[in-house]
Specification:
The structure holds two protein chains of two kinds. Chain A is mainly α. Helix content of chain A is 45%, strand content 2%. Chain A is globular. Chain B is globular and about 100 Å long. Classes of the chains: A mainly alpha, B mainly alpha.
Chain lengths: 247, 1210
């Protein structure tokens, strides 16, 4: 909202009198102002990446892409030129954590201690790693704990103290986090298929995650327990290897 | 200047002599670090002596002055070089003059061990030691599984594929199904072990190990493994606590759990070993939740539970040791931590090269004495030497009380130009120059200040005021945390300005290190008594456990190979079956037994090594942070009888080889340690018992020399073997044993074979002892772990007793000097050094007679140890005030308690009290509710308050805590004087207290164990098994026994020392550590049980040497005996040694160490049959020279054999 305003503002700020020095265009603010209408919510477009200056550059960019078109997987996931790959991955993981919360909300009425007393995905039973001693938790608890611990880890000062660069020693956390988040998808697919499909159609989160896993080669194929057709959309081919076209 | 004319009263210029050339060695002291520098002691440069006169030729022309000058100058340039030549020239043979001159280079050096003290052994050795023989099966499983699932070669695979594979495995580790997890772990383990199936050679294998582990760590394996480890341990815990452990499923479950735990441990071990120096690894280890070190400690505690028979204790302890090293720091890191701590306090870093030390207390004493005796002279007081505003010195120390009572000297006049005569000025300067303020004293002083202030405050308003604590507390952790932004409550405290200022001066790395130490300590503190108690118990059971000395019935390894038989059992079984059998001739079963036995032996040694390493680390690292932390650990160690245990262990290990040589029998427990080594000695084609090859190598040789172990128990060998399990049936003799057999086939008795003829180690050539021109013999290969253990134990003992009169007195009472004197005879400076330090602290209390008989030791102390400016240990009768010492000890304990109560209030809670009680500190069960004061306990504790126990008595603390309002169940004394607070008693009690007193107190005296009995150390044991690592050891029994009969700390028994102990009659010559031990009763000749023992050391059978000559000379330290060169053994009593036509003659006569003698005989009276055996088991290479078996040749050289440190006398 403010962005379109910025342009005319820039125009009008052009001085009419010759003596005033030209003012720099005010920095565009991509924020939802109080009183905004629902259809206008977050309706700004971002300029190309290299023209933005912001500390949260990657996050903003990714989010705007997602908002524009959640199914444009390749655009969203592929690392743009000049961006730090690790940072990109980090931001993506953050985004996934954020969006998975919606899935949890959707799951909550369905996935109870009675229906899913353990974290199960197609015969694989998992231990919840969110505790000092790994233990068995019911599925929803597992999901919530995992999400919480992943979020905490991604936000932790010790491992990820900066939003513009990732320390070397923290890179290995990506694989762990991805694996655990993957299990959430796995459980949902196998135990609560309708919810999964409903969620997927809307957000294409699994497809994106799947593509991301393949793109960054995070998990081996045999660990991807959810069948490919769960993506419900075309997965763009990867450059190096054989393409994984979706269903 | 002179007022009076006569010459004699004027001040004269002194004679103008040239300054004297200093020939004394440069002032230096020996440290552990310099101990293994390759040169021996720098030879004392002697003043140039003129060459011995040549044979006088009257007809030759007189040499001119120029000639003489030339000869003299050449002589003075190289006196040392000349000597050998001179001695060797034909013109001089037999010239008395040459022989009387001491050679510049010691002509006969005892062979030295090649041991260099380091934090850990070589990489491969450590790995070898980590694995057991029984692990091989598991390793093989892993390999099969891996090869089944991984296509192609690991070496050749792309890194992405490898990463994927590992990621898959890590995924599996989070599964709930234990089977799947276990499989994944095994595969990971195989990878971590370097995929040895693909390694063609050992170096490649090692490379693979390193590379793979780095990959694994990079992929985050540590986290997963640790999590899995926790899960597995928890499962194991649950299973073992299950009600009926005997049902088959439970047993199976337990085995499964144990295997899983073992696999995890192996993996962790490999990771740690490879990343030993890695900083990120260390950070991760400590930042786990809980820190890995403290988790491992909790596992150690759990060992105290029953049903832990097959637990992989060795791995656990090794892991703990390594983790502690990595987390707390290696020696260098600890040294820099120490410097950082000093900087924090504003002290300068300590220069290792300072030669003389003097503390402010010393100066203060001097100042007081001078002030008393020479009131006219005013020396500055000690404040200038201490940090500001800190009272470091005890204002009126008791040690100089006597001096202070002397009246001052009346002085006729005071010179007005100077305040102090030159003498005093110089003294003051000297003190100032050598002043050293120790970090510990500063920290303790601050703590004392804080305690006092808290006291005052409590008196005033009854509750410690937090705010002021905040301001005044010295908070290292707060400080180091501020570097890293931690948010614990204390960290927000205001720091003293000076600390803040200094904080900026220390390196970030050190701050991190200090913080880590603090972190780990914080986690350990709540259960510290249990941790320490467990460690000591383990140490005891491994080495001296009562079970060890009892032979198990039928020995033998169990069929499944999972459990090994007891050492004792093995020995009996093997002796019969293997004595005199050649190796190749053994059946597979017997070979297996051999391997088991060797494995067992190694197991024991490795466990001991681990425990000793852990203790040293704990003490050192905590001291770098704060002295009182270290003091706390030391206090716990002392209370758990660590000191006496160490002494006992050293005593059993440091035997003269002559007594320990034969094949073992299950007699004395100490012998077990050498059994693994000597068992190989049995493998000859020759006659049964042959001389042990280690003879003549000096004290403790068998313990300290490198042992040849069958390679089969080694990890690397297993990895290399083509078909590992068939190898068990045709174990090829190792190259070493082949070599040994060859040497045996030569003239047996005389070959100075290296211990067990290891092919790599050079045979010690007899020429080493030949003459002055010979090169010193090659270094003896040393057993790293045993050396490491011995040095560590000595260090621990020294740390425990340093500067603590009370504990030193305890040492004196236990006659530690006997053991320490033996330690000095080991020819390695590291061991000698610490033994000397320990002796130095005891010398003041040992009496004049001891001093005069042990001048050699005092000389060595003088040469090697850093002197204090005012070294008074030789200063004659010390006015020993035992009560004062005791009071000192108690004050220290109170301070420790207060420190911990202040810093770690949550730690001193119910658990602490319960734990401490459980360990047996006092046999009372802690009352379940601590909220009310138990009057009975109260009264008792008041009655005991004079003793040290009162200081740490939980009941008393509860009382003090309860009424003082600072919380209930306070384990630690909140104030030393807490017992005196008013209390109200139950009126009923008050009426009947007399009755109660009579019943409770007077009629049931707790019996104190005598200080010399080791009964408290050997609780009754259940079944007669030893302690193997995975066999039927009933942990439960000794533990239960301990709880029934509370093990009183031996330390307590000595709380009042008898003065007579400290008299001039102190005599440690006939003391032996074994004599009082009931388990060694079998030693005594004439004891019906001693038969097997006799067989043991009477090589030829028949009457033992001791039987013939039951009382070899007792007074080993009588200098006239020990060092007389010409004391022939042939005289009186010598014959009995020689007329046996036995091959063992050679070493029979060497069996001369007095400790052995007195240990194995019932009396140890002085006998004058000077069986020259007075020269205690020192390097006697020359005795084995050539094939000369004649006694005389040997005897004359006997006295000349020199222990490494002793200055040569002849």
């Amino acid at each position: 909202m403010s962005s379109p305003n910025a342009a005319p503002a820039a125009d009008t700020s052009a001085p009419s009198s010759t003596t005033k020095p030209p003012q720099a265009p005010p920095k565009p603010l991509w924020r939802n102002r109080p009183g905004i209408r629902q259809e206008d919510w977050s309706q700004w477009t971002l300029p190309p990446l290299d023209q933005i200056e912001s500390s949260f550059l990657a996050q903003q960019y990714i989010q705007s892409l997602v908002r524009k078109d959640p199914s444009a997987i390749k655009d969203i996931v592929d690392v743009p030129e000049g961006q730090d790959t690790n940072l990109w991955r980090y931001e993506h993981l953050r985004q996934i954590c954020l969006e998975l919360n919606n899935l949890v909300v959707m799951l909550e009425p369905e996935c109870t201690t009675e229906t899913c007393p353990e974290m199960k995905a197609q015969e694989w039973l998992y231990l919840c790693a969110g505790h000092p001693n790994p233990q068995q938790c019911p599925a929803l608890d597992y999901i919530v704990h995992t999400l919480d611990s992943a979020t905490a880890l991604l936000n932790s000062q010790k491992s990820f103290y900066s939003r513009v660069s990732i320390p070397e020693g923290s890179i290995k956390h990506f694989a762990n986090i991805t694996r655990r988040l993957y299990r959430i998808f796995a459980h949902t697919w196998y135990q609560h298929k309708e919810i999964f499909q409903e969620f997927e159609v809307e957000t294409h989160l699994y497809a994106r995650t799947y593509y991301m896993i393949k793109y960054f080669d995070v998990m081996p194929d045999d660990a991807l327990v959810v069948p490919v057709e769960a993506c419900m959309t075309d997965i763009p081919p990867l450059e190096a290897d054989s393409s994984e076209s979706g269903e | 200047m002179a007022l009076v004319r006569p010459a004699m009263m004027t001040e004269r210029k002194p004679l103008a002599l040239p300054p004297p050339v200093v020939f004394s060695p440069r002032p230096t002291h020996t440290t552990l670090a310099t101990a293994h520098s390759n040169d021996s002691l720098p030879p004392v440069p002697l003043p140039p002596t003129p060459p011995p006169p040549q044979a006088f030729d009257p007809t030759a022309p007189l040499p001119s002055l120029a000639d003489l000058r030339a000869r003299l100058s050449s002589a003075s340039e190289e006196p040392p070089a000349q000597l050998p030549i001179v001695v060797g020239t034909p013109a001089d043979t037999g010239h008395a003059a040459a022989q009387t001159r001491p050679p510049a280079v010691p002509t006969r050096k005892a062979a030295r061990y090649d041991f260099d003290y380091a934090d850990r052994d070589a990489f491969e050795t450590e790995i070898n030691e980590f694995y057991n023989f029984q692990d091989h099966q598991q390793m093989e499983d892993g390999r099969q599984l891996f090869e089944a699932t991984f296509v192609g070669q690991w070496k050749a695979a792309k890194s992405s594929r490898r990463a994927n594979y590992v990621a898959g495995l890590l995924e599996h580790m989070e599964l709930r199904d234990a089977e799947l997890r276990y499989k994944a772990v095994k595969k990971l383990l195989y990878i971590s072990q370097g995929v040895y199936g693909e390694a063609a050679s050992q170096p490649e294998h090692v490379e693979l190990i390193v590379a793979n582990n780095q990959v694994l760590f990079a992929l985050g394996t540590l986290e997963h493994i640790y999590a899995g480890f926790k899960v597995a341990s928890q499962t194991l815990d649950v299973v073992t606590r299950a009600a009926e452990p005997t049902t088959l499923e439970r047993q199976y479950a337990m085995e499964q759990a144990i295997s899983e735990v073992t696999a995890h441990m192996c993996l962790l071990g490999m990771l740690i070993e490879v990343h030993f120096k890695d900083e990120t690894f260390a950070t991760e280890l400590v930042s786990m939740n809980p820190p890995v070190a403290s988790f491992l400690f909790t596992l150690v505690d759990q060992l105290a539970e029953a049903n832990r028979k097959r637990y992989p204790v060795k791995k656990l302890l090794l892991l703990l040791w390594k983790v502690l090293t990595v987390s707390l720091g290696t020696s260098e890191q600890l040294a820099s931590l120490k410097t950082a701590s000093r900087t924090l306090e504003g002290l300068d870093p300590f220069d290792e090269n300072t030669f003389v030390k003097s503390t402010p207390q010393d100066y203060h004493n001097f100042h007081l004495v001078v002030a008393t005796r020479y009131p006219a002279y005013v020396t500055p007081n000690a404040d200038s030497l201490c940090p500001p505003r800190l009272q470091l010195v005890d204002p009126i120390p008791t040690c100089i009380r006597r001096q202070l009572q002397q009246a001052g000297v009346l002085q006729p006049f005071v010179s007005t130009d100077t305040l102090l005569p030159t003498l005093f000025d110089e003294c003051v300067d000297l003190y100032r120059k050598h002043n050293y303020v120790s970090l510990a004293s500063v920290q303790i002083a601050r703590e004392r200040d804080r305690m006092d202030k808290e006291e005052e405050r409590r008196d005033v308003d009854g509750a410690a005021s937090e705010l002021e604590d905040v301001v005044e507390a010295l908070d290292d952790e707060a400080l180091s945390a501020s570097h890293l932004g931690s948010e614990r409550r204390r960290d927000v405290f205001a720091l003293r300005p000076s600390v803040k200022r200094n904080a900026k001066r220390i390196k970030k790395q050190d701050a991190v290190g200090l913080k880590r130490v603090e972190e780990i300590y914080r986690h350990l503190v709540p259960q510290m008594p249990v941790h320490v108690g467990m460690l000591i118990r383990l140490l005891y059971y491994v080495n001296l456990g009562a079970a060890n000395s009892v032979p198990s019935s039928g020995g033998g390894s169990k069929a499944d190979g999972d459990s090994a038989s007891t050492p004792g059992g093995d020995n009996t079984a093997d002796d019969g079956s293997l004595a005199g059998m050649s190796f190749a001739g053994m059946t597979p079963d017997q070979k297996r037994e051999h391997l088991m036995k060797a494995d067992n032996n190694r197991h024991r040694e490795v466990v001991t090594k681990a425990i000793s390493g852990i203790l040293v680390l704990l003490l050192k690292a905590s001291k770098c942070n704060h002295a009182l932390k270290s003091e706390y650990i030391a206090q716990l160690l002392v209370d758990n009888n660590c000191a006496i245990l160490i002494l006992k262990m050293l005593s059993t290990w440091l035997q003269s080889p002559s007594a320990n040589s034969s094949p073992v029998t299950p007699g004395p427990p100490g012998q077990q340690n050498t059994s693994g080594g000597t068992s190989w000695a049995e493998r000859t084609a020759g006659a049964p018992p042959r001389p042990p090859p280690a003879v003549g190598l000096g004290m403790g040789a068998l313990w300290l020399t490198k042992k040849d172990e069958p390679k089969e128990i080694d990890f690397f060998h297993f990895a290399r073997a083509k078909d590992p399990f068939s190898a068990a049936s045709e174990i090829t003799p190792t190259a070493a044993s082949i070599a040994e057999r060859e040497t045996e086939e030569k003239a047996a008795a005389t070959s100075p074979a290296t211990p067990l003829g290891s092919a790599e180690s050079p045979l010690h050539s007899p020429t080493g002892m030949g003459g002055p021109t010979s090169t010193p013999p090659p270094d003896i290969p040393s057993s790293f772990r045993n050396f490491y253990t011995s040095i560590n134990l000595l260090r621990i003992l020294q740390k425990l007793t340093k500067r603590k009169t009370h504990r030193v007195l305890a040492l004196v009472q236990w006659k530690a000097s006997a053991v320490l004197k033996r330690a000095i005879k080991v020819s390695h400076v590291g061991i000698q050094l610490y033994a000397l330090k320990l002796l130095k602290s005891q010398i003041p209390y040992l009496g004049k007679k001891w001093r005069s008989t042990n001048m050699k030791i005092i000389t060595a102390i003088f040469i090697h140890l850093r002197p204090c400016l005012r070294d008074e240990y030789l200063a004659g009768d010390v006015d020993v005030d035992v009560d004062e010492a005791l009071a000192h000890e108690q004050r220290l304990r109170a301070m420790i308690a207060s420190y911990h109560a202040h810093r770690y209030p949550e730690a001193s809670g119910e658990d602490g009290a319960a734990a401490e009680n459980g360990v047996g500190e006092n046999g009372r069960a802690a009352s379940p509710t601590h909220s009310h004061v138990d009057e009975l306990e109260l009264i008792l504790s008041i009655s005991r308050r004079g003793s040290y126990e009162g200081a740490s008595d939980p009941q008393m603390n509860r009382f003090a805590g309860g009424s003082g309002g600072s919380g209930s169940g306070n384990l630690f004394l909140s104030s030393a004087g807490g017992a005196y607070e008013p209390l109200t008693l139950d009126p009923n009690f008050m009426e009947n207290y007399e009755e109660w007193l009579r019943m409770e107190v007077y009629d049931s005296e707790p019996s104190l164990p005598s200080p010399t009995s080791s009964s408290s150390l050997s609780p009754p044991v259940g079944p007669a098994d030893g302690w193997p690592h995975e066999a039927e050891h009933h942990w439960g029994d000794p533990i239960a026994a301990e709880q029934h009969e509370p093990t009183r700390s031996l330390f307590s028994a000595t709380r009042r020392f008898s003065k007579e102990m400290l008299s001039d009659d102190y005599d440690d010559s006939d003391w032996t550590w074994d004599a009082d031990d009931e388990s060694t009763a079998a030693y005594r000749v004439g004891d019906p049980d001693a038969d097997e023992y006799d067989a043991f050391h009477a090589p030829g059978g028949g009457d033992s040497v001791w039987a013939d000559d039951p009382a070899p000379p007792g007074d080993m330290d009588d200098p006239s005996r020990a060092w007389a060169t010409t004391l022939p053994m042939l005289d009186s009593g010598g014959d009995c040694y020689y007329d046996r036509p036995h091959v063992d003659d050679v070493w029979a006569e060497n069996r001369d160490d007095q400790d052995e003698a007195s240990a194995h005989s019932s009396e140890s009276s002085d006998s004058s049959d000077g069986a020259g055996s007075a020269d205690s088991g020192v390097a006697l290479f020359d005795d084995l020279a050539g094939t000369d078996e004649s006694a005389s040749g040997k005897k004359t050289e006997r006295g000349g054999s020199s222990v490494y440190l002793w200055p040569d006398e002849f």
